[in-house]
Specification:
Blueprint: E1 38-43, H1 58-65, E2 72-73, E3 78-79, H2 80-83, E4 86-91, H3 99-112, E5 122-127, H4 132-143, E6 151-156, H5 176-182, E7 186-196, H6 207-212, E8 215-218, H7 219-240, E9 246-251, H8 273-281, E10 288-294, H9 305-323
Parallel strand pairs: 1-4, 1-5, 5-10, 6-7, 6-9, 7-8, 9-10
Antiparallel strand pairs: 2-3
Helix pairs in contact: 1-9, 3-4, 4-5, 7-8, 8-9
This protein binds manganese (II) ion (MN) (2 copies).
């Protein structure tokens, strides 16, 4: 069932109630049009940050910025809304005062979304700080029937996010992947972290990821290899998964602050928007079963380019999924 969209030649993109991509609200989708392929939902939560707050406003900003998303992907030659049925599931019931409680509440709510078609309907979460990735990964893993060994993970970020604890708390935005690996939701041998760069607190910050066998593709390594070399590396990674279910998590701070200034822990020397989109496209063939786009902090970006890019990143993930249908 294609996604029902308002006709932009009849109903202008700047009119109407805002949902992500102008996709229908989940509650408005008729039962006979289920199951959906994707539900997009917001997690307006930023209590897990270690620096600037404000990502709680990310989902609204991304929805607003997504009004100009169109349906046909030129590079992949795919009509995303023809291939996929997508709806906006609204926002998760966040618990702003407690990180652990929030992770549990969001994961449970997301697991229950469109419960009759859990195994078919995939989830794309709009953050929120990166701590919310744990919740959507958990929900995705369970909806996929708890695949043995855990999900593969494609992780775009300036940071590894495998710190055990910050300020005595293990559930903040520096820790989602150490928790997901500990809980068996992610297979670290099927995980790649792309865009990592320093400075770090110490060389030992890399120890956990290296010890677990996570592939680290640093920002500098990407520069040395160039666009084609990186695309080949990502293509090889996808092939190595042999169609195992994979999750894509995109921390917008992987992109240079010149292109994505609206973020909480900016890191200079990142990808351009073009490079980021090219790498997502290089994941063609990935069996994507869940995703998130996080760390968008609209108040730091009066131009709105960060949210605009983030909305397009979500669209790239959907396009990867559409290619497989
Ligand atoms: Mn992150
Ligand atoms: Mn980051």
């Amino acid at each position: 069932m294609p996604t029902q969209l308002p006709n932009p030649r009849v109903s202008p993109r700047f009119a109407g109630i805002v949902t992500f991509g102008r996709y229908p609200q989940l509650d408005a989708v008729a039962t006979e049009n289920l199951p959906l392929d994707w539900i997009i939902y917001g997690v307006p939560f930023d209590a897990g940050v270690t620096y600037r707050p404000g990502a709680r406003f990310g989902p609204r900003a991304m929805r607003e910025a997504s009004q100009y998303l169109k349906r046909y992907h030129i590079e992949h030659d795919v009509d995303v809304c023809e291939k996929l049925s997508i709806a906006d599931g609204g926002d998760a019931p966040v618990k702003p005062y407690d990180l652990r409680e929030n992770a549990v509440a969001v994961a449970e709510w997301a697991f229950a979304l469109s419960a009759g078609s859990r195994g078919t309907t995939k989830l794309l979460a709009l953050g929120g700080d990166h701590s919310i990735a744990y919740a959507n990964i958990r929900a995705t893993y369970l909806r996929q029937g708890s695949p043995k060994g855990g999900l593969a993970l494609v992780h775009f970020d300036s940071h590894l996010d495998t710190v055990d604890a910050v300020w005595g708390n293990q559930w903040g935005h520096a820790s989602p992947f150490i928790r997901a690996i500990e809980d068996g939701l992610i297979d670290p041998r099927h995980m790649i972290s792309i865009g990592i760069k320093g400075p770090l607190n110490a060389a030992s910050d890399l120890d956990y990821a290296k010890g677990k066998g996570i592939r680290i593709l640093t920002r500098d390594e990407c520069s040395r290899r160039g666009a084609e070399g990186c695309a080949r590396e990502l293509g090889d990674f996808v092939a190595s998964l042999k169609d195992a279910p994979a999750y894509v998590t995109f921390d917008i701070d992987a992109v240079d602050p010149a292109f994505a200034p609206g973020t909480g822990t900016p890191s200079v020397g990142g990808f351009s928007s073009t490079e980021a989109l090219a790498m997502l496209r290089a994941l063609k063939g990935l069996h994507v079963v869940g995703a998130d786009v996080v760390e968008v902090l609209p108040d730091r970006d009066p131009t709105g380019i960060t949210s605009f890019l983030a909305a397009h990143i979500a669209f790239e993930v959907l396009a990867l999924s559409a290619l497989r249908k």
